[in-house]
Amino acid sequence: MEHIPIIKMGEFLLVSIQVDMHDRLALTLQDDLMEQIVRTSARGVLIDISSLQVVDSFIGRMLGNIAAMSRILDAETVVVGMQPAVAVTLVELGMSLKGIRTALNVDKGMALLRSSLSRQARGKSDERPGG
Amino acid sequence: MNVQADKTQPLVSTDDIVQVRRAVREMAVEIGFSLVDQTKLVTAASELARNAVIYGGGGTVKIEILRDDRRTGLRLTFTDQGPGIPDIELALKDGYTTGDGLGIGLGGSRRLVNEFEIDSRPGAGTRVSVIRWK
Amino acid sequence: MQKNTKSKIPEIIKKFEQELLNDWLKEQLGARTLRPDLLKEAELRRQSGEFLALIKVASTKADMTDLANPEWKPVLEFLAGLSRDRVARGFTPSEAAIFVFSFKQPLFACLKTELGADLKEFSEEIWSATMLLDQLGLYITEIFQKTREDVIRRQQDEMMELSTPVVKLWEGILALPLIGTLDSARTQVVMESLLHKIVETGSNYAIIDITGVPLVDTLVAQHLLKTVSAARLMGADCIISGIRPQIAQTIVHLGVSLTDVVTKANMADAFALALERTGYRLAQTKG
Predict the structure, then answer these.
(1) Measured between CB atoms, which of A92, A104, A107 is closest to C234?
(2) How far is A18 from chain B (nearest CA, A)?
(3) For residue A94, is it within any domain?
(4) Rounded CA separation A51/C190 (Å)
(5) Per-residue pLDDT reduced to its tens digit, A76-121
(6) E strands within A38-120?
(7) ipTM of the assembly?
(8) Stretch C109-124: mean pLDDT, rounded?
(9) Where are the domain boundaries for CATH 1.10.490.70 in chain C?
(10) Segments forming the whole domain that contains residue A43
(11) Residue among A84, A92, A105 minimizing CB distance to C196
(12) B2-133: what CATH class?
């Protein structure tokens, strides 16, 4: 069975989606991620979609599910590298990806995760997920 | 107006959705659509293909290259023999949600294309035809 | 006008081709509209000769009043090419069309000599010749117009490229000062290019300044707002600055909520905000 590789980077997990996923692969990814979060006690998940040329409502929902499930497992999710054509299309399609934080690239995504974690550690109130 | 080339693909399982995306992308590139237009059309195709597979019980999609004096475009026609849509107006309405259901797919797809036609009656299946011009 | 007999013009052109050409050239070279600065005499001779030869052939194969007949295609193609050439050289539409209209005089003179005895026949042939040359002259003008329009459109595109540069104000902060009237197509192109620059430069902030935009219509306003949404989806924020009261009105009439979009009165304020959000503090040192 195919799996999308998940890389551990310190207390974060990094997933790079490089293929046009069929449904089964997407569901497998969700399962694998949740398993890894628990296994490694990860505090953050970075999903790199810079190679994705299409994000339809199904993928959008998948990303939303991953963000929600990770939060329950005490990990923050950031989606990075969305292509301009994809962003423009999602706006037209009407998907706002509410509840999913985004950043331009992996570096910025990591910075976002780190600052969010340190904010939590300092005891400030949990940041609301940005829209 | 000329129909220059056409291709018909099955829409039976969700794996077929990926194939449709690929086929539409290829033809869009062949005609020379801009990247944004390609993406919009392929995304609309993905939504409509998914509707046909999941809500329509399976069907087919026909991809045609259209040419007339002034312009070139791609027409996609999705046909299924499913239960049909009882309230099309409602199905086309959507809110900006990440929710599932027919809402986002149908209404959203309409915004991604230039021409949109839908013919659906309860018990008589559904046919959705969309055109994107270059 | 229905002709009962075939026109004698094709024969006449064939018989007197050289004389017609000479007379025609004399006509053209003596005209006020001649542009020796733009077109050499040798070239004009060559073009006139070619045109006459093409007319000679076409008129024998097809009716002179039926330009839709494929036998006339070579003539039309030649004239289209000539017209485009005239545009490129800087001729006016009249100066271009006179090429065909100036042929009337020599042709009519020739017809008078050959057919003058039979007034009925003479007037019918003059009529046919007039119809033909008028249509050809108008055709030149049409192609001239179209070609000019293409040139203008291309120049507009080039100007668009030059007039909407995306500027990097600071590490991570871009500015797009828009100037002039925006139309839907231009706005779309510009907005997409902004999104690409955001990715390329890794800028978290993009300031779209519309101080220099007098009017914003519904479509343009929608494109602006869609761009802001798209940028946010990608992980960057847009600040719109320089919104005039009239534009604010348009946006309100649109029924669009701007509560999600950060706006500032001018680019300087927008820049200051972006710097602050990026974690910079401005301090003035004693001079």
Answers:
(1) A104
(2) 14
(3) yes
(4) 23
(5) 999 999 999 999 999 998 888 888 999 999 999 999 999 999 988 8
(6) 44-48, 76-80, 101-103
(7) 0.89
(8) 88
(9) 9-156
(10) 6-121
(11) A84
(12) alpha beta
